[in-house]
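[job 0412] stage=complex_fold ligand=NAI status=START
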Amino acid sequence: MSIAVAVVGAAGRMGSTVCQAVQDADGLELVARLDIGDTVSADTLNGADVAVDFTHPSTTEDNVHALIDAGVDVVVGTTGWTDESYERVREHLARPEAAGRSVIIAPNFALSAVLTMSFAAKAARYFESAEVIELHHPNKVDAPSGTAIATARGIAAARAEAGLGPVPDATETDPDGARGAVVDGVHVHAVRLRGLTAHEEVVLGNPGEQLTIRTDSFDRASFMPGVVLAVREVGGREGLTIGLDRLLDL
Ligand SMILES: NC(=O)C1=CN([C@@H]2O[C@H](COP(=O)(O)OP(=O)(O)OC[C@H]3O[C@@H](n4cnc5c(N)ncnc54)[C@H](O)[C@@H]3O)[C@@H](O)[C@H]2O)C=CC1
Ligand SMILES: O=C(O)C1=N[C@H](C(=O)O)C[C@H](O)C1
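[job 0412] stage=complex_fold status=DONE, emitting structure tokens
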């Protein structure tokens, strides 16, 4: 039996690529394309089992709640999620009327990016310094990227677990934010450049040595195997799953 899939944000860069990937995938059937102005309802979802959301950070949480209420499982690639918004989804999924529903939210579906996050967290305890540089196309609406935030959090958690203190940094004056955003103590720098798609570099430093871990998504095709995997697996995972790494046994 095939899995019926609705795509929310279907007219966007990711949404349109996902529609094509669903149409090309064995055992998946594209049954609905929704975009801005469309209401989420059983009617518009047209019998979908799973909805995939690639929309906008300002709307993705509302979409997820509406999709759960409409009785579908949800795969989310949209960024902008916080601990609080994750918690609200967990609470929603715990209600009796949402029994059996599941949601997967992943800041990045590309294998190279998921491995970069995993390798960075593994390496973090061995280095005094760690910073993240994300580089994206100039149409991206949010900074830092969801992937960079997740990477920085993973590094920070690994440093804390290893008992490492703050990264060394003697900077005293930075009126224009040249040292970037600081996510859980890890500096994150965002580049927006015409010609780029989605890239990230994690730099880790010790006296006399540097480790660089880099991921490059040159094409949105890079995200599709991960999205298709999540669509296939979401139904078997009750509750909220955060990150594609959880599906890859990393
Ligand atoms: N998790 C991952 O692997 C990836 C995540 N992303 C994230 O996906 C999101 C979308 O990125 P793009 O496709 O590049 O953006 P985009 O701007 O090309 O597409 C977004 C689409 O969502 C639609 N939209 C906006 N509000 C809506 C609503 N309330 N209901 C339905 N549709 C709505 C827009 O009209 C547009 O067609 C961003 O948050 C981006 O960071 C992007 C690439 C990979
Ligand atoms: O907007 C994008 O393009 C991307 N967004 C995601 C993010 O913010 O991490 C994933 C990837 O970097 C592409």
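The longest strand covers residues 198-206.
[job 0412] exit 0
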